[in-house]
Amino acid sequence: MRNVILAESAGFCFGVKRAVEKSLEIQETYGKKIYTLGPLIHNNDVVNYLKENNIFSIELDDIDSLNEGDIIVIRSHGVPEETIELLNKKNLIVIDATCPFVTNIQKKVRKYSDKGYNIVILGDKSHPEVIGINGWCNNSAITTLNGEFDIEVPKKVCVVSQTTEKESNWKKTISNLSFMTKELLAFNTICSATEVRQKSVLELSKNVDAMIVIGGKNSSNTTKLYQIAKEHCENTIHVENSNDLPKNYIENANFKNIGITAGASTPDWIIEEVMAIMKNGLK
Ligand code: SF4
């Protein structure tokens, strides 16, 4: 008999849940088609579910196709300050579903760049959350992907982190900056939802024969869960939903204990489907 164990903390985080619920609520209130600036979350199944509920993603480049009074939702990653100004100028109804934890980073970055600190962001500079944060200090931040710097760092620095970063990268960043700066103000802004997920996948992956990480292929927090799991469990796979489960994996008799975790954009219904198939096989 197989044992399928769900990580203690998996799936929708507070910020994503809030953004999805807010969008559904707003759509219902206005009773018309509404838009999200970019896909609301990194999960194709949820994006399709939203479409069925008259909620569509639109890119900033296409914003001119909207009319005055159209509703646009800002997703949990947040956006640069200038984007909010632009949307307001177009007289759109802007619903801000930026996760409050991300808003907190944006405020810090604005406050300390105004006070003369040079902002450093640990994170992926092409990720919308980092682009958004950088937009609150006039796009002047230095970004580091892993705590290493190949340019000269100014002496007075305020450092923050993308919410989905690994603690080890944060420690490396602080350690390197402490040699390079004279005045260092550090806010560890890694979200505890991320940390809790990462800790529970670390524990679980040490004790199972196989690990399944569920989440969008372009979701950064899911990718990090996958990397952590893979370090401790060779048979780790990353799937978007139950359709991606390989047949030989489902039927592998050596897998007696299977661990499951899911990124912050994965809804419960997808987790449940994967668990059912791994428990009972394909019907
Ligand atoms: S991971 Fe944390 S910061 Fe990011 S949306 Fe979720 S709750 Fe907010």
TrEMBL record:
It catalyses: dimethylallyl diphosphate + 2 oxidized [2Fe-2S]-[ferredoxin] + H2O = (2E)-4-hydroxy-3-methylbut-2-enyl diphosphate + 2 reduced [2Fe-2S]-[ferredoxin] + 2 H(+); isopentenyl diphosphate + 2 oxidized [2Fe-2S]-[ferredoxin] + H2O = (2E)-4-hydroxy-3-methylbut-2-enyl diphosphate + 2 reduced [2Fe-2S]-[ferredoxin] + 2 H(+). Isopentenyl diphosphate binds at residues 42, 77, 127, 219-221, 265. It comes from the Bacteria. Pathway: Isoprenoid biosynthesis; dimethylallyl diphosphate biosynthesis; dimethylallyl diphosphate from (2E)-4-hydroxy-3-methylbutenyl diphosphate: step 1/1; Isoprenoid biosynthesis; isopentenyl diphosphate biosynthesis via DXP pathway; isopentenyl diphosphate from 1-deoxy-D-xylulose 5-phosphate: step 6/6. GO terms for molecular function: 4 iron, 4 sulfur cluster binding; 4-hydroxy-3-methylbut-2-enyl diphosphate reductase activity; metal ion binding. Binds 1 [4Fe-4S] cluster per subunit. Keywords: 4Fe-4S, Iron, Iron-sulfur, Isoprene biosynthesis, Metal-binding, Oxidoreductase. [4Fe-4S] cluster binds at residues 13, 99, 191. The keyword Lipid metabolism does not apply. One of its GO terms (biological process) is dimethylallyl diphosphate biosynthetic process. The active site is at 129 (proton donor). InterPro entries: LytB/IspH. Belongs to the IspH family. PANTHER family: 4-HYDROXY-3-METHYLBUT-2-ENYL DIPHOSPHATE REDUCTASE. This is 4-hydroxy-3-methylbut-2-enyl diphosphate reductase. It comes from Clostridium thermobutyricum. The lineage of its organism: Bacteria, Bacillati, Bacillota, Clostridia, Eubacteriales. The gene is ispH.
